[in-house]
From TrEMBL:
Taxonomy, superkingdom: Eukaryota
Protein name as it appears in the record: Large ribosomal subunit protein bL32c
Keywords assigned: Plastid, Ribonucleoprotein, Ribosomal protein
InterPro entries named in the record: Ribosomal_bL32, Ribosomal_bL32_plant/cyanobact
Family statement drawn from the similarity comment of this UniProt entry: Belongs to the bacterial ribosomal protein bL32 family.
GO BP, sorted A to Z: translation
Location(s), subcellular: Plastid, Chloroplast
GO cellular component, one term: large ribosomal subunit
Pfam families registered for this protein in UniProt: Ribosomal_L32p (PF01783)
MF term (GO), any: structural constituent of ribosome
Length: 63
């Protein structure tokens, strides 16, 4: 079974923690930017299909 032989140093621990925080921060910035561009309708790099108000029956008729 793989068990670490020595204790992880404080500096190594803080480096790993900062990398983990940076990844979360980048994901947050991307999501925020995407949401902001959708709200302002200023998107050019992807297609966004808006819902139409045709109803939710999807072609099925009720008797």
């Amino acid at each position: 079974m793989g068990v670490p032989k020595k204790r992880t140093s404080i500096s190594k621990k803080s480096i790993r923690k900062n990398i983990w925080k940076r990844k979360g921060s980048l994901a947050y910035l991307k999501a925020f930017s995407l949401g902001k561009s959708l709200l302002t309708e200023n998107y050019k790099s992807f297609f966004y299909r808006q819902k139409t108000s045709t109803g939710s029956s999807r072609g099925l008729k009720k008797k």
